[in-house]
Amino acid sequence: MHCGTTSDLFLRDNLEWLARATNWAKFTATASLGVIHKGHEKEALHLMSSYLPKESGPGSGYTEGGGLYALGLIHANHGAAITDYLLSQLREAKNEIVRHGGCLGLGLAAMSTHREDIYEQLKHLLYQDDAVAGEAAGIAMGLVMLGSNSQSTLNDMIAYAHETQHEKILRGLAVGIALVLYGRLEEADAQIDALAKDKDALLRRSAMHAIAMAYCGSGNNAAVRRLLHVAVSDVNDDVRRAAVEALGFILFRTPEQCPGVVSLLSESYNPNVRYGSAMALGISCAGTGNKEALSLLEPMTNDPVNYVRQGALIASALILIQQTEATCPKVKDFRQLYHKVVSDKHDDVMAKLGAILAQGILDAGGRNVTVALTSRTGHVNMAGVVGMLVFTQFWYWFPLAHFLSLSLSPTCLVALTGELKMPRLQIRSGAKPSMFAYPPPLEEKKEREREKVTTAVLSITAKARRREAHSGKESPVPAATSDAMEVDEEPSTSTAAKKRRHQLLVQKRPKRKHRCSR
């Protein structure tokens, strides 16, 4: 939500909540500062100084690793000034968590530089066979050698993928191999064929990612046919999901085609395929407000499988980013849906994660950025595509969700003179203000104070009370509730006195004369 705004008020105002974060949650929270300060390179080291590794005494590995990851996010794709610092920190790091953050940060800062010294350092860490550091090293190797199609690099990565027993390292290498083949089109076919025939499902999944990267934005029919075939034929659910997701990367230049391609897959019996179709719609139709795509996603928000709901919520936010009620009336309904899922205490955690991410995506960058996989001139945005691919890997490893910030691009008009200086000028827009209106802020529900209600008095009761007051009688006092035994009161007069009084009354009473009837 605050990507690139430098506004970290939420973290400052909620330090107690932030202090409760432990382990990888602390790592991710620290790395989020890199998303907030994205692009602000001059003050980066000063801002992150309290989170970076220090020579004096050991610090928290999770905080330091998150700090190095944050530096990479700040300098993503243009980190010449910070690359050597990150490389030195990575060489000195002994903690696997610091190495993990250092690898991700270095990969981001040195993206597509093809520097051999950085690649060798990352390969050295990979060969340590440490699962945590190895996963990040695999991704970072792909980032550094992005689009190089280097045969030696691919041979190293594939050979080690066959040797290692760690699934985490395999996952990192699967993404890294795909990144090396970025934008190579038919040149990558031989490598993709070899990976697609591998008996290891993780390497077959790497082939699907490789198709997505090699043919990104091309709309290639042969690639689409191949992905559709794998989506319905492979025995592994993860491979099928990756194949369907890859369709979104190939078709993002022609987003109107994607709903027709994945419409049948969105109704598949396999929940992994349904999830993949939701993400494909989100990737290809990002920022378009495509009504057909939203109509396919709406029933998936009520899917019986929670991770399918998660994918549908995230995809809907990707499509609706920077859409207003004037341009797309469904925005209001989806906002209410996100709020309902997040606030429902009984809803599943996976669906809640999807709704929280969706809310952040919908209001990304203070509502001043959009998801841009292409530039304004129609060329593929390399950093945006790479960020989106790694973002989809949050399925396995949630700290990778921060890579989405690479896909966000500000929507603004920048005027320049011939000397590349910004002139002072005013621009008049003919559009209605409602076209660009911000949605109203959420209001917290205020608890109403309960007023004391006066008890109703019936008219009969009121009359009875007035009568008692007039006669001087007080209303009967309720008996005290005590545990003592009730005792009858003694009679005021004795029984003998009563008998005498009765005899006197009988004697004084006159005798009646009875008449005889004849």
From TrEMBL:
Residues 411-503 form the 26S proteasome regulatory subunit RPN2 C-terminal domain. Gene3D superfamilies: Leucine-rich Repeat Variant. InterPro entries: ARM-like, ARM-type_fold, Proteasome/cyclosome_rpt, RPN2_C. SUPFAM superfamilies: ARM repeat (SSF48371). Residues 497-518 have a biased composition (Basic residues). One of its GO terms (biological process) is proteasome-mediated ubiquitin-dependent protein catabolic process. GO terms for cellular component: nucleus; proteasome regulatory particle, base subcomplex; proteasome storage granule. The chain crosses the membrane at residues 394-416. Keywords: Membrane, Proteasome, Repeat, Transmembrane, Transmembrane helix. It holds the Pfam family HEAT_2. Residues 461-518 are annotated as: Disordered. Signal peptide: none annotated. Belongs to the proteasome subunit S1 family. This is 26S proteasome non-ATPase regulatory subunit 1. The lineage of its organism: Eukaryota, Metazoa, Ecdysozoa, Arthropoda, Chelicerata.
